[in-house]
Amino acid sequence: MAAGFKTAEPLEYHRSFLVNKSDRIQNHNTEHREVSVTYIGFLILFPCLGSISTANGSALVKLGNTTIICGIKAELTNPTVEAPGKGYIVPNVDLPPLCSSRFRPGPPGEQAQAASQFIADVIERLIKTEDLCIDRGKLCWVLYCDLMCLDYDGNILDACVIALLAALKNTRLPEVTINKETSAPEVNLEKRRELQIHKHLVSASFCIFDDSILIADPTAEEETLSTANLTVVTDEDDRLCSVHKPGGTSLSGERLQECISRATTRQREIQKLIDKVAHSVKKAQ
Amino acid sequence: MEVCGSLTVSLREFGCEQSLLSRTDGSASFVQGDTSVMAGVYGPAEVKVSKEIYDRATLEVLVQPKVGLPSVRERSQEQCVRETCEASLLLTLHPRSSLTLILQVLHDDGSLLSCCLNAACMALMDAGLPMSCLFCGVTCAISTDGQIITDPTAAQEKESRALMTFAIDSAKRSVLMSSTKGSFSVHELQQCIAVSQKASEKIFQFYRDSVKRRYSKSL
Protein backbone atom coordinates (compact mmCIF):
# COMPACT_ATOMS: atom_id res chain seq x y z
CA MET A 1 0.00 0.00 0.00
CA ALA A 2 2.76 2.43 1.00
CA ALA A 3 4.88 1.36 -1.99
CA GLY A 4 2.01 2.17 -4.35
CA PHE A 5 1.52 5.61 -2.77
CA LYS A 6 5.25 6.25 -3.01
CA THR A 7 5.34 5.50 -6.75
CA ALA A 8 2.24 7.46 -7.62
CA GLU A 9 2.82 10.56 -5.50
CA PRO A 10 6.48 10.70 -4.40
CA LEU A 11 6.27 14.31 -3.31
CA GLU A 12 3.28 13.76 -1.02
CA TYR A 13 4.82 10.60 0.39
CA HIS A 14 7.99 12.44 1.45
CA ARG A 15 6.08 15.45 2.60
CA SER A 16 3.96 13.43 5.01
CA PHE A 17 7.06 12.09 6.78
CA LEU A 18 8.87 15.40 6.86
CA VAL A 19 5.92 17.36 8.21
CA ASN A 20 5.30 14.84 11.01
CA LYS A 21 8.96 14.76 11.98
CA SER A 22 9.15 18.52 12.06
CA ASP A 23 6.16 18.70 14.41
CA ARG A 24 8.04 16.54 16.82
CA ILE A 25 11.10 18.75 16.55
CA GLN A 26 9.01 21.87 17.13
CA ASN A 27 7.53 20.45 20.34
CA HIS A 28 10.90 19.55 21.80
CA ASN A 29 12.84 22.59 20.78
CA THR A 30 11.05 25.75 21.81
CA GLU A 31 13.70 28.10 20.42
CA HIS A 32 13.05 27.31 16.79
CA ARG A 33 9.32 27.79 16.45
CA GLU A 34 8.93 28.45 12.74
CA VAL A 35 11.98 26.58 11.56
CA SER A 36 11.40 23.04 10.44
CA VAL A 37 14.65 21.36 9.76
CA THR A 38 14.95 17.65 9.36
CA TYR A 39 18.33 16.10 9.55
CA ILE A 40 17.95 12.72 7.97
CA GLY A 41 21.55 12.45 9.05
CA PHE A 42 24.61 11.89 6.99
CA LEU A 43 24.79 8.32 5.81
CA ILE A 44 27.49 5.93 6.89
CA LEU A 45 30.76 6.49 5.16
CA PHE A 46 33.13 3.76 4.18
CA PRO A 47 36.42 4.77 2.60
CA CYS A 48 39.01 2.37 1.26
CA LEU A 49 42.50 3.47 0.24
CA GLY A 50 44.88 2.01 -2.27
CA SER A 51 42.32 -0.02 -4.23
CA ILE A 52 43.96 0.57 -7.63
CA SER A 53 47.49 -0.80 -7.75
CA THR A 54 48.49 0.78 -11.09
CA ALA A 55 47.64 4.31 -9.94
CA ASN A 56 49.91 6.54 -7.88
CA GLY A 57 47.09 7.01 -5.39
CA SER A 58 43.52 5.85 -5.17
CA ALA A 59 40.50 5.75 -2.93
CA LEU A 60 37.05 4.21 -3.00
CA VAL A 61 34.37 5.96 -1.02
CA LYS A 62 30.86 4.77 -0.26
CA LEU A 63 28.45 7.33 1.13
CA GLY A 64 25.41 5.17 1.82
CA ASN A 65 24.81 3.72 -1.65
CA THR A 66 26.70 6.38 -3.57
CA THR A 67 30.07 4.94 -4.60
CA ILE A 68 32.89 7.02 -6.07
CA ILE A 69 36.32 5.72 -6.97
CA CYS A 70 39.20 8.15 -7.45
CA GLY A 71 42.46 7.30 -9.18
CA ILE A 72 45.45 9.63 -9.37
CA LYS A 73 48.09 9.29 -12.04
CA ALA A 74 51.17 11.47 -11.96
CA GLU A 75 53.08 12.42 -15.09
CA LEU A 76 56.06 14.63 -15.80
CA THR A 77 55.47 17.64 -17.97
CA ASN A 78 56.57 21.22 -18.63
CA PRO A 79 54.89 23.74 -16.37
CA THR A 80 52.53 26.32 -17.86
CA VAL A 81 53.93 29.66 -18.97
CA GLU A 82 51.77 31.61 -16.48
CA ALA A 83 53.00 29.64 -13.47
CA PRO A 84 56.52 28.31 -14.08
CA GLY A 85 57.10 27.38 -10.44
CA LYS A 86 53.97 25.30 -9.96
CA GLY A 87 52.68 21.94 -11.09
CA TYR A 88 49.02 21.43 -11.83
CA ILE A 89 46.13 19.11 -11.13
CA VAL A 90 43.53 18.06 -13.70
CA PRO A 91 40.37 16.63 -12.16
CA ASN A 92 37.70 14.84 -14.16
CA VAL A 93 34.39 13.57 -12.87
CA ASP A 94 32.80 10.80 -14.90
CA LEU A 95 29.20 9.69 -14.51
CA PRO A 96 29.01 6.58 -16.70
CA PRO A 97 25.74 4.84 -17.65
CA LEU A 98 26.75 2.13 -15.17
CA CYS A 99 25.90 4.22 -12.14
CA SER A 100 22.36 5.19 -13.02
CA SER A 101 19.78 4.84 -15.77
CA ARG A 102 19.54 8.63 -16.11
CA PHE A 103 22.99 8.84 -17.77
CA ARG A 104 23.32 7.83 -21.39
CA PRO A 105 26.55 6.73 -23.14
CA GLY A 106 28.30 9.46 -25.06
CA PRO A 107 30.02 12.75 -24.23
CA PRO A 108 29.87 13.86 -20.59
CA GLY A 109 26.57 15.50 -19.66
CA GLU A 110 26.05 18.81 -17.90
CA GLN A 111 26.04 17.33 -14.41
CA ALA A 112 29.41 15.61 -14.88
CA GLN A 113 30.99 18.72 -16.37
CA ALA A 114 29.59 21.01 -13.68
CA ALA A 115 30.90 18.59 -11.04
CA SER A 116 34.34 18.60 -12.71
CA GLN A 117 34.42 22.41 -12.69
CA PHE A 118 33.36 22.44 -9.02
CA ILE A 119 36.17 20.03 -8.08
CA ALA A 120 38.68 22.07 -10.15
CA ASP A 121 37.72 25.23 -8.24
CA VAL A 122 37.89 23.51 -4.85
CA ILE A 123 41.13 21.62 -5.45
CA GLU A 124 43.26 24.76 -5.63
CA ARG A 125 43.37 24.92 -1.84
CA LEU A 126 43.87 21.22 -1.22
CA ILE A 127 47.57 20.94 -1.94
CA LYS A 128 50.26 23.49 -2.62
CA THR A 129 51.04 23.26 -6.31
CA GLU A 130 54.53 24.57 -5.60
CA ASP A 131 55.24 21.12 -4.10
CA LEU A 132 54.64 19.60 -7.52
CA CYS A 133 57.38 21.63 -9.17
CA ILE A 134 60.67 19.82 -9.73
CA ASP A 135 62.69 22.25 -11.83
CA ARG A 136 61.34 25.76 -12.19
CA GLY A 137 60.21 26.46 -15.71
CA LYS A 138 61.32 23.08 -17.03
CA LEU A 139 59.80 20.15 -15.21
CA CYS A 140 56.85 19.57 -12.95
CA TRP A 141 54.32 16.94 -11.96
CA VAL A 142 50.83 16.97 -13.35
CA LEU A 143 48.29 14.94 -11.38
CA TYR A 144 45.40 13.54 -13.36
CA CYS A 145 42.57 12.84 -10.92
CA ASP A 146 39.83 10.68 -12.36
CA LEU A 147 36.72 10.36 -10.26
CA MET A 148 34.31 7.75 -11.48
CA CYS A 149 30.89 7.12 -10.03
CA LEU A 150 30.03 3.46 -9.71
CA ASP A 151 26.67 3.84 -8.04
CA TYR A 152 24.65 7.06 -8.12
CA ASP A 153 22.41 7.60 -5.12
CA GLY A 154 22.65 11.36 -4.79
CA ASN A 155 25.23 13.69 -3.25
CA ILE A 156 28.11 12.96 -5.59
CA LEU A 157 29.86 16.26 -4.84
CA ASP A 158 30.47 15.30 -1.20
CA ALA A 159 31.63 11.82 -2.12
CA CYS A 160 33.95 13.19 -4.84
CA VAL A 161 35.64 15.65 -2.49
CA ILE A 162 36.15 12.96 0.16
CA ALA A 163 37.47 10.50 -2.43
CA LEU A 164 39.85 13.11 -3.79
CA LEU A 165 41.15 14.01 -0.34
CA ALA A 166 41.64 10.36 0.58
CA ALA A 167 43.34 9.52 -2.73
CA LEU A 168 45.72 12.49 -2.46
CA LYS A 169 46.65 11.35 1.06
CA ASN A 170 47.38 7.92 -0.39
CA THR A 171 49.46 9.27 -3.31
CA ARG A 172 53.16 8.55 -3.33
CA LEU A 173 55.35 10.29 -5.92
CA PRO A 174 58.78 8.89 -6.83
CA GLU A 175 61.91 10.98 -6.37
CA VAL A 176 63.00 12.84 -9.48
CA THR A 177 66.48 14.24 -9.88
CA ILE A 178 67.85 16.16 -12.84
CA ASN A 179 71.06 14.73 -14.21
CA LYS A 180 73.43 17.74 -14.47
CA GLU A 181 75.30 16.48 -17.59
CA THR A 182 72.46 15.26 -19.73
CA SER A 183 69.81 17.52 -18.09
CA ALA A 184 67.41 14.61 -18.36
CA PRO A 185 65.15 13.68 -15.49
CA GLU A 186 65.99 10.53 -13.56
CA VAL A 187 63.12 8.87 -11.81
CA ASN A 188 63.90 6.74 -8.78
CA LEU A 189 60.94 4.42 -8.34
CA GLU A 190 62.28 2.97 -5.11
CA LYS A 191 62.29 6.19 -3.10
CA ARG A 192 58.83 7.66 -2.83
CA ARG A 193 57.54 10.66 -1.00
CA GLU A 194 54.04 11.50 0.09
CA LEU A 195 52.07 14.56 -0.93
CA GLN A 196 51.60 17.11 1.77
CA ILE A 197 47.95 18.02 2.16
CA HIS A 198 47.78 21.75 2.76
CA LYS A 199 44.16 22.02 3.84
CA HIS A 200 41.74 19.20 4.56
CA LEU A 201 38.69 20.31 2.62
CA VAL A 202 35.39 18.58 3.21
CA SER A 203 32.10 19.41 1.57
CA ALA A 204 28.60 19.09 3.00
CA SER A 205 25.61 19.07 0.67
CA PHE A 206 22.03 19.90 1.51
CA CYS A 207 18.86 20.03 -0.48
CA ILE A 208 15.96 22.37 0.14
CA PHE A 209 12.55 20.80 0.11
CA ASP A 210 9.34 22.79 -0.13
CA ASP A 211 11.23 26.07 0.53
CA SER A 212 11.54 25.44 4.27
CA ILE A 213 12.93 21.98 4.99
CA LEU A 214 16.64 21.28 4.71
CA ILE A 215 17.79 17.72 4.13
CA ALA A 216 21.44 16.94 4.72
CA ASP A 217 23.18 14.45 2.44
CA PRO A 218 20.26 13.90 0.03
CA THR A 219 19.72 10.60 -1.78
CA ALA A 220 18.92 10.55 -5.50
CA GLU A 221 15.18 10.44 -4.84
CA GLU A 222 15.34 13.41 -2.45
CA GLU A 223 17.42 15.35 -4.99
CA THR A 224 14.84 14.93 -7.75
CA LEU A 225 12.05 16.11 -5.44
CA SER A 226 14.00 19.02 -3.98
CA THR A 227 13.64 22.61 -5.12
CA ALA A 228 17.28 23.63 -4.62
CA ASN A 229 20.70 22.25 -3.69
CA LEU A 230 23.47 23.78 -1.59
CA THR A 231 27.04 22.57 -1.08
CA VAL A 232 29.34 24.15 1.52
CA VAL A 233 33.06 23.32 1.54
CA THR A 234 35.00 24.06 4.73
CA ASP A 235 38.55 23.49 5.88
CA GLU A 236 40.04 22.77 9.29
CA ASP A 237 40.47 26.49 10.12
CA ASP A 238 36.68 26.99 9.77
CA ARG A 239 37.18 29.01 6.61
CA LEU A 240 34.77 28.51 3.76
CA CYS A 241 36.23 27.42 0.45
CA SER A 242 33.07 27.26 -1.54
CA VAL A 243 29.38 28.04 -1.13
CA HIS A 244 27.89 26.45 -4.22
CA LYS A 245 24.21 26.96 -4.80
CA PRO A 246 23.41 26.65 -8.50
CA GLY A 247 20.05 28.43 -8.49
CA GLY A 248 16.75 27.07 -7.30
CA THR A 249 14.55 28.53 -4.57
CA SER A 250 16.06 31.11 -2.25
CA LEU A 251 17.62 30.43 1.11
CA SER A 252 17.39 32.79 4.09
CA GLY A 253 20.43 33.96 6.02
CA GLU A 254 19.67 31.87 9.13
CA ARG A 255 19.29 28.65 7.12
CA LEU A 256 22.59 29.34 5.41
CA GLN A 257 24.22 29.83 8.79
CA GLU A 258 22.81 26.50 10.02
CA CYS A 259 24.18 24.76 6.96
CA ILE A 260 27.60 26.30 7.51
CA SER A 261 27.75 25.20 11.16
CA ARG A 262 26.64 21.70 10.19
CA ALA A 263 29.33 21.68 7.51
CA THR A 264 32.05 22.56 10.03
CA THR A 265 31.06 19.64 12.31
CA ARG A 266 31.00 17.40 9.27
CA GLN A 267 34.52 18.54 8.40
CA ARG A 268 35.84 17.35 11.76
CA GLU A 269 34.13 13.96 11.48
CA ILE A 270 35.42 13.30 7.99
CA GLN A 271 38.94 14.49 8.69
CA LYS A 272 39.17 12.13 11.67
CA LEU A 273 37.85 9.27 9.60
CA ILE A 274 40.27 9.85 6.71
CA ASP A 275 43.22 10.21 9.08
CA LYS A 276 42.26 6.94 10.77
CA VAL A 277 42.03 5.06 7.49
CA ALA A 278 45.24 6.57 6.09
CA HIS A 279 47.04 5.67 9.29
CA SER A 280 45.82 2.07 9.19
CA VAL A 281 46.89 1.74 5.54
CA LYS A 282 50.35 3.04 6.38
CA LYS A 283 50.66 0.60 9.27
CA ALA A 284 49.64 -2.27 7.01
CA GLN A 285 52.29 -1.44 4.39
CA MET B 1 34.47 48.44 -9.62
CA GLU B 2 35.20 50.27 -6.44
CA VAL B 3 35.86 49.63 -2.85
CA CYS B 4 33.03 49.21 -0.38
CA GLY B 5 33.64 51.01 2.87
CA SER B 6 30.52 51.37 4.94
CA LEU B 7 27.98 49.88 2.54
CA THR B 8 28.38 52.52 -0.17
CA VAL B 9 28.38 50.38 -3.24
CA SER B 10 29.60 51.51 -6.60
CA LEU B 11 29.20 49.49 -9.75
CA ARG B 12 30.71 50.11 -13.15
CA GLU B 13 28.65 51.90 -15.76
CA PHE B 14 26.05 49.61 -17.15
CA GLY B 15 23.98 49.75 -20.30
CA CYS B 16 21.34 47.60 -21.89
CA GLU B 17 19.53 47.26 -25.17
CA GLN B 18 16.50 45.08 -25.82
CA SER B 19 14.93 43.62 -28.98
CA LEU B 20 18.05 43.97 -31.05
CA LEU B 21 17.84 40.61 -32.84
CA SER B 22 15.12 39.91 -35.42
CA ARG B 23 14.80 36.10 -35.39
CA THR B 24 14.58 35.55 -31.65
CA ASP B 25 11.45 35.84 -29.56
CA GLY B 26 13.33 38.04 -27.10
CA SER B 27 16.83 39.43 -26.97
CA ALA B 28 18.93 41.77 -24.91
CA SER B 29 22.48 42.98 -24.66
CA PHE B 30 23.92 43.91 -21.27
CA VAL B 31 27.13 45.84 -20.79
CA GLN B 32 28.91 46.27 -17.42
CA GLY B 33 31.99 48.44 -17.85
CA ASP B 34 33.82 46.55 -20.61
CA THR B 35 32.13 43.19 -20.07
CA SER B 36 29.42 42.64 -22.64
CA VAL B 37 27.01 39.72 -23.11
CA MET B 38 24.21 39.28 -25.65
CA ALA B 39 21.26 37.04 -24.85
CA GLY B 40 18.61 35.58 -27.15
CA VAL B 41 15.51 33.64 -26.13
CA TYR B 42 13.47 31.26 -28.26
CA GLY B 43 10.22 29.97 -26.83
CA PRO B 44 7.81 28.59 -25.95
CA ALA B 45 8.50 26.24 -28.85
CA GLU B 46 8.29 22.56 -29.67
CA VAL B 47 10.37 20.23 -27.57
CA LYS B 48 12.06 16.90 -28.37
CA VAL B 49 10.13 14.01 -26.90
CA SER B 50 13.21 12.80 -25.03
CA LYS B 51 13.53 16.13 -23.27
CA GLU B 52 9.90 16.96 -22.62
CA ILE B 53 8.53 17.30 -19.10
CA TYR B 54 4.80 16.63 -18.77
CA ASP B 55 3.91 19.54 -16.47
CA ARG B 56 6.56 22.20 -17.11
CA ALA B 57 8.54 23.84 -19.87
CA THR B 58 12.08 22.56 -20.49
CA LEU B 59 14.64 25.36 -20.23
CA GLU B 60 17.94 24.98 -22.01
CA VAL B 61 20.78 27.46 -21.60
CA LEU B 62 23.81 27.72 -23.88
CA VAL B 63 26.78 29.91 -23.07
CA GLN B 64 29.02 30.59 -26.06
CA PRO B 65 32.46 31.96 -25.22
CA LYS B 66 34.03 34.68 -27.33
CA VAL B 67 36.72 32.36 -28.71
CA GLY B 68 36.63 28.61 -29.13
CA LEU B 69 34.09 25.95 -28.28
CA PRO B 70 32.20 25.79 -24.99
CA SER B 71 34.23 23.96 -22.36
CA VAL B 72 33.66 22.65 -18.86
CA ARG B 73 33.66 26.16 -17.39
CA GLU B 74 30.80 27.21 -19.70
CA ARG B 75 28.81 24.12 -18.70
CA SER B 76 29.04 25.06 -15.05
CA GLN B 77 27.96 28.65 -15.87
CA GLU B 78 25.06 27.22 -17.87
CA GLN B 79 23.93 25.17 -14.89
CA CYS B 80 23.97 28.24 -12.62
CA VAL B 81 22.03 30.42 -15.09
CA ARG B 82 19.54 27.68 -15.92
CA GLU B 83 18.62 26.87 -12.36
CA THR B 84 18.28 30.57 -11.49
CA CYS B 85 15.95 31.14 -14.46
CA GLU B 86 13.94 28.02 -13.58
CA ALA B 87 13.39 29.39 -10.08
CA SER B 88 11.97 32.67 -11.33
CA LEU B 89 10.13 31.65 -14.53
CA LEU B 90 6.59 30.28 -14.26
CA LEU B 91 7.40 27.14 -16.21
CA THR B 92 4.16 25.37 -15.34
CA LEU B 93 2.30 27.75 -17.66
CA HIS B 94 3.94 26.13 -20.71
CA PRO B 95 4.01 22.36 -20.25
CA ARG B 96 5.64 20.19 -22.90
CA SER B 97 7.36 23.20 -24.46
CA SER B 98 10.93 24.26 -24.74
CA LEU B 99 12.59 27.55 -23.86
CA THR B 100 16.08 28.11 -25.18
CA LEU B 101 18.31 30.85 -23.84
CA ILE B 102 21.55 31.54 -25.66
CA LEU B 103 24.20 33.77 -24.11
CA GLN B 104 27.01 35.01 -26.33
CA VAL B 105 30.01 36.49 -24.58
CA LEU B 106 31.11 39.53 -26.57
CA HIS B 107 33.85 40.69 -24.23
CA ASP B 108 34.98 39.48 -20.81
CA ASP B 109 36.49 42.06 -18.48
CA GLY B 110 35.48 40.51 -15.16
CA SER B 111 32.09 39.78 -13.52
CA LEU B 112 31.11 37.60 -16.47
CA LEU B 113 28.59 35.37 -14.71
CA SER B 114 26.68 38.31 -13.25
CA CYS B 115 26.60 40.03 -16.66
CA CYS B 116 25.21 36.80 -18.14
CA LEU B 117 22.49 36.70 -15.48
CA ASN B 118 21.51 40.32 -16.10
CA ALA B 119 21.39 39.82 -19.87
CA ALA B 120 19.34 36.66 -19.38
CA CYS B 121 16.78 38.44 -17.20
CA MET B 122 16.39 41.31 -19.67
CA ALA B 123 16.01 38.89 -22.58
CA LEU B 124 13.37 36.86 -20.75
CA MET B 125 11.50 40.10 -20.00
CA ASP B 126 11.77 41.12 -23.65
CA ALA B 127 10.36 37.77 -24.75
CA GLY B 128 7.36 38.34 -22.51
CA LEU B 129 7.78 35.09 -20.60
CA PRO B 130 5.86 35.02 -17.33
CA MET B 131 8.12 35.34 -14.30
CA SER B 132 7.37 35.35 -10.58
CA CYS B 133 10.24 37.73 -9.89
CA LEU B 134 13.16 39.35 -11.65
CA PHE B 135 16.73 38.47 -10.78
CA CYS B 136 20.08 40.15 -11.16
CA GLY B 137 23.68 39.07 -10.79
CA VAL B 138 26.29 40.76 -8.61
CA THR B 139 29.95 39.77 -8.32
CA CYS B 140 32.09 40.59 -5.28
CA ALA B 141 35.82 40.12 -4.98
CA ILE B 142 37.75 40.11 -1.70
CA SER B 143 41.19 41.55 -2.22
CA THR B 144 44.28 40.30 -0.40
CA ASP B 145 43.96 43.04 2.24
CA GLY B 146 40.34 42.13 3.02
CA GLN B 147 38.47 44.86 1.15
CA ILE B 148 35.29 43.98 -0.69
CA ILE B 149 35.13 45.12 -4.31
CA THR B 150 31.82 44.92 -6.18
CA ASP B 151 31.70 44.36 -9.91
CA PRO B 152 35.46 43.73 -10.27
CA THR B 153 37.35 44.01 -13.53
CA ALA B 154 39.38 41.07 -14.82
CA ALA B 155 42.57 42.52 -13.33
CA GLN B 156 40.95 42.93 -9.91
CA GLU B 157 39.55 39.38 -10.09
CA LYS B 158 42.99 37.96 -10.79
CA GLU B 159 44.52 39.66 -7.78
CA SER B 160 41.68 38.81 -5.43
CA ARG B 161 41.80 36.16 -2.77
CA ALA B 162 38.14 35.17 -3.21
CA LEU B 163 35.52 35.76 -5.87
CA MET B 164 31.77 35.39 -5.30
CA THR B 165 28.82 35.76 -7.64
CA PHE B 166 25.27 35.96 -6.28
CA ALA B 167 21.93 36.07 -8.05
CA ILE B 168 19.48 38.19 -6.05
CA ASP B 169 15.73 38.12 -6.65
CA SER B 170 13.61 41.25 -6.82
CA ALA B 171 10.75 40.14 -4.55
CA LYS B 172 12.49 39.39 -1.25
CA ARG B 173 16.10 40.36 -2.09
CA SER B 174 17.12 36.81 -1.18
CA VAL B 175 20.01 34.86 -2.65
CA LEU B 176 18.89 32.59 -5.49
CA MET B 177 22.30 31.44 -6.66
CA SER B 178 25.75 31.49 -5.16
CA SER B 179 28.99 30.55 -6.88
CA THR B 180 32.27 31.16 -5.08
CA LYS B 181 35.94 30.60 -5.65
CA GLY B 182 38.80 31.02 -3.17
CA SER B 183 38.68 30.97 0.61
CA PHE B 184 36.91 33.38 2.93
CA SER B 185 35.42 33.47 6.41
CA VAL B 186 31.74 33.26 7.32
CA HIS B 187 31.73 36.93 8.31
CA GLU B 188 33.13 37.96 4.91
CA LEU B 189 30.45 35.88 3.19
CA GLN B 190 27.69 37.65 5.10
CA GLN B 191 29.21 41.05 4.35
CA CYS B 192 29.37 40.21 0.64
CA ILE B 193 25.76 39.07 0.63
CA ALA B 194 24.70 42.33 2.29
CA VAL B 195 26.74 44.34 -0.22
CA SER B 196 25.26 42.37 -3.13
CA GLN B 197 21.73 42.97 -1.88
CA LYS B 198 22.43 46.70 -1.73
CA ALA B 199 23.93 46.65 -5.24
CA SER B 200 20.95 44.71 -6.58
CA GLU B 201 18.66 47.64 -5.75
CA LYS B 202 20.58 49.81 -8.21
CA ILE B 203 20.36 47.14 -10.88
CA PHE B 204 16.62 46.60 -10.41
CA GLN B 205 16.08 50.36 -10.60
CA PHE B 206 18.05 50.32 -13.84
CA TYR B 207 15.84 47.52 -15.26
CA ARG B 208 12.74 49.50 -14.38
CA ASP B 209 14.10 52.70 -15.96
CA SER B 210 15.24 51.06 -19.18
CA VAL B 211 11.96 49.19 -19.71
CA LYS B 212 9.98 52.33 -18.92
CA ARG B 213 12.04 54.34 -21.39
CA ARG B 214 11.63 51.71 -24.09
CA TYR B 215 7.86 51.44 -23.80
CA SER B 216 7.32 55.18 -23.55
CA LYS B 217 9.05 55.63 -26.93
CA SER B 218 7.02 53.00 -28.77
CA LEU B 219 3.66 54.56 -27.94
Automatic annotation (TrEMBL), chain A:
Residue ranges of every copy of the Exoribonuclease phosphorolytic domain listed in the record? 50-174, 202-264
According to its UniProt record, where is this protein mainly located? cytoplasm
A biological process (GO) of this protein is: TRAMP-dependent tRNA surveillance pathway
Q: Which organism is it from?
A: Neolamprologus brichardi (Fairy cichlid)
Protein name (database record): Ribosomal RNA-processing protein 43
Q: A Gene Ontology CC term for this entry?
A: cytoplasmic exosome (RNase complex)
Q: Which family does it belong to?
A: Belongs to the RNase PH family.
Q: Where in the cell is it found?
A: Cytoplasm; Nucleus, Nucleolus
Task: Name the keywords, alphabetized.
Answer: Cytoplasm, Exosome, Nucleus, RNA-binding, rRNA processing
Q: According to the lineage, what is the superkingdom?
A: Eukaryota
Q: Name one GO molecular function term.
A: mRNA 3'-UTR AU-rich region binding
UniProtKB/TrEMBL annotation, chain B:
Q: Which is one Gene Ontology cellular component term of this protein?
A: nucleolus
GO BP, sorted A to Z: nuclear mRNA surveillance; poly(A)-dependent snoRNA 3'-end processing; rRNA catabolic process; rRNA processing; U4 snRNA 3'-end processing
The transmembrane residues are: none
List UniProt keywords, sorted A-Z.
Cytoplasm, DNA-binding, Exosome, Nucleus, Phosphoprotein, rRNA processing
UniProt domain Exoribonuclease phosphorolytic: residue ranges: 11-130, 134-198
Molecular function, one GO term: RNA binding
Q: Where is this protein primarily located?
A: cytoplasm
Top-rank taxon, per record: Eukaryota
Q: Name one Pfam family in it.
A: RNase_PH
Q: Where is it localised?
A: Cytoplasm; Nucleus, Nucleolus
Recorded hits in InterPro entries, A to Z, give: ExoRNase_PH_dom1, ExoRNase_PH_dom2, ExoRNase_PH_dom2_sf, PNPase/RNase_PH_dom_sf, Ribosomal_Su5_D2-typ_SF, RNase_PH
Q: Which family does it belong to?
A: Belongs to the RNase PH family.
Quaternary structure and partners: Homodimer. Component of the RNA exosome core complex (Exo-9), composed of EXOSC1, EXOSC2, EXOSC3, EXOSC4, EXOSC5, EXOSC6, EXOSC7, EXOSC8 and EXOSC9; within the complex interacts with EXOSC3, EXOSC8, and EXOSC9. The catalytically inactive RNA exosome core complex (Exo-9) associates with the catalytic subunit EXOSC10/RRP6. Exo-9 may associate with DIS3 to form the nucleolar exosome complex, or DIS3L to form the cytoplasmic exosome complex.
Q: Cross-referenced PANTHER family, in alphabetical order?
A: EXOSOME COMPLEX COMPONENT, EXOSOME COMPLEX COMPONENT RRP46
Q: What is this protein called?
A: Exosome complex component RRP46
Q: Which organism is it from?
A: Neolamprologus brichardi (Fairy cichlid)
